[in-house]
């Protein structure tokens, strides 16, 4: 998103989480001293669970805003900003970063909110209204504010909403 950053949208699940490696990468790859496969994040309804790679049969509820239980120098948190959506955001504390110029990872459920308020998944103070992004029939749709129609987001094409430019890229 122009002026806002780069975000990885992941659908489905569960998602593998791990450190950077030259071999096959995890779905969520962190440039840190984490194991190549530290564990998995699984969504069940409104909740998210951590499945440790060393204890795969035991899952642990991930509390919004609390660090994930991964050994290493990086600290990753999961945040569920809106009770109206089961989407969540993974963020890293500086100086650690995700791989591939990603600022945050959105575990996209039904709806992703972009906007100036704290209840949005992607915070962007440069727009006056929320942008609602949703997935329907394997297509991403977006609209600004509560009025108007959803517009289809096509991979590789820049879409200009009133105050925000979005480009979806396949990874």
Keywords:
about 170 residues; mainly beta; six-stranded mixed β-sheet; five-stranded mixed β-sheet; 17 strands; about 40% strand
Short overview:
The chain is mainly β and 171 residues long. The protein has no helices and 17 strands.
Account of the protein in words:
This protein has no helices and 17 strands. It has strands at residues 7-10, 15-19, 28-31, 39-44, 47-52, 59-61, 76-79, 88-92, 97-98, 104-107, 111-115, 122-123, 131-136, 139-144, 151-153, 158-160, 165-167. The strands form four sheets. Strands 6-5-4-2-3-9 form a six-stranded mixed sheet, with no helix packed on it. The chain has a five-stranded mixed sheet with strand order 12-11-13-14-15, with no helix packed on it. A hairpin with a 6-residue loop joins strand 5 (47-52) and strand 6. The radius of gyration is 16 Å and the shape is globular. The model has no long low-confidence stretch (mean pLDDT 89).
| Strand element count | 17
Which sequence of SSEs, written as H and E, runs from N to C?
EEEEEEEEEEEEEEEEE
Continuous helix count: 0
Cα distance spanning the termini? 15 Å
Mean pLDDT: 89
Kindly name the structural category. Answer: mainly beta
Overall morphology: globular
Main beta-sheet annotation: 6 strands, mixed
């Amino acid at each position: 998103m122009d002026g806002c950053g780069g975000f990885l949208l992941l659908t489905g699940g569960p998602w593998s989480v791990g450190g950077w490696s030259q071999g096959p990468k995890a779905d969520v790859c962190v440039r840190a001293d984490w194991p190549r496969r530290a564990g998995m994040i699984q969504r069940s309804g409104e909740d998210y669970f951590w499945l440790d790679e060393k204890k795969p049969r035991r899952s642990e509820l991930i509390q919004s805003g609390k660090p994930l239980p991964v050994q290493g120098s990086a600290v990753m948190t999961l945040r569920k900003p809106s009770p109206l959506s089961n989407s969540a955001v993974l963020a890293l504390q500086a100086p650690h970063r995700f791989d591939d110029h990603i600022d945050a990872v959105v575990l996209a459920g039904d709806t992703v909110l972009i906007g100036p308020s704290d209840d949005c998944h992607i915070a962007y103070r440069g727009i006056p209204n929320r942008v609602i992004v949703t997935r329907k029939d394997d297509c991403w749709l977006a609209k600004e504010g509560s009025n108007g129609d959803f517009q289809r987001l096509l991979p590789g094409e820049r879409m200009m909403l009133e105050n925000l430019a979005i480009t979806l890229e396949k990874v």
